[in-house]
Fold this protein.
Amino acid sequence: MKDIAVWGFSWVPPFAQGLVRDLRVRWALEEAGLPYESKWINADERTSEGYRRKHPFGVVPVIESDGQTMIESGAIIHAIAEQHEVLMPPDRRTETLAWMFAALNTVEPPLWNLFVIDQLQNDQAWTKLRRPGAVDEANARLAALSAWLEGREYLLESFTAADILMATTLRFLRHTNLVTEFLPLDKYLKRCEARPAFQAALRNQAAVYAHNTPVAA
Amino acid sequence: MKDIAVWGFSWVPPFAQGLVRDLRVRWALEEAGLPYESKWINADERTSEGYRRKHPFGVVPVIESDGQTMIESGAIIHAIAEQHEVLMPPDRRTETLAWMFAALNTVEPPLWNLFVIDQLQNDQAWTKLRRPGAVDEANARLAALSAWLEGREYLLESFTAADILMATTLRFLRHTNLVTEFLPLDKYLKRCEARPAFQAALRNQAAVYAHNTPVAA
């Protein structure tokens, strides 16, 4: 992959900073040692016809490389990982893919649901009634994941692309103590976040928000 | 892949019949022309230690093949598609993967959310307050998908693994008219469901439910 550009949002509110999904792509690129340029759209441009031509659903991330456009954080990271064994060891390909899909399709939904309740819709009356059940659903997945991670440093024998997707998924609950209450999860997430590639990705994403801080009304 | 066994639930309530995710795997296997055996667990066995050794989250599907276990419908279908070009044409690999992840990570969450509201938690007071917003969120994804499918038979030039994941995702809203109100989506889903491989997969899954119909209390 050459001439890589990653698209993210030029500004999001503090509660969302460090959670927007282009972080996943930046992290993978940093782990793979691939240089990339950042491109940004603002919230209004998401639904513009020009951006919809890049991404039919008007979301981020989008990546451009060698003149090709690619969408979906899972698919982009899959593509990077296929070319960089450090993210997908050839003898652990099946397991890496299984855990990548598990992060996005089994663990993310109940965690994202709680993020919506607490951070996006918290002024709505229904959230108070819904929250206890949503916490139970999130905890069921966290407990199973914690049992798996007991005695393990990463999901598999070494760090892989699946850890990028799982750690960024766990971060959706950083406003709660649900993850930290499971010691194996707490240690796992801190271990992932301590990686220099994650720190670099986070800095690259945060820089544009700092630059674009809107003046308080 | 040889000696394939697919794990599903031995019985689920009528509102869930035809929606459990092992249907995706059966469909892919039927499209690829691969014979498979069905294995079933009941709801209690999900959390058993033996089954957790197969699937850390205690869900279905699980597939066994050549003595190897694989989890996650997305990962299993990915593995089948890699060996069967009919599900992933080599020159459309990137696009197929992008749409597979789009189905599972961008379209499924708001559709599944509405399924939970209407079918799993419909006796809860919060669902009445939450439903209008959840319908809007589902409709936003459906509208974007419908725009993409306008003038197309399938997500890409021919049927692929991505259509298996997208069509089975749209089916989560079969209890509503949200999908059918978008003519391109309605035609797309009917086109997918008319495929002999889908019909065979559905029959194989339904047979065990019919066999295990619980006696009314």
Q: What stands out?
A: Chain A has a mean pLDDT of 95. Chain A touches chain B through 41 residues (CB under 8 Å). Chain A is about 55% helix and 10% strand. Strands of chain A lie at 5-9, 37-41, 62-65, 68-71.
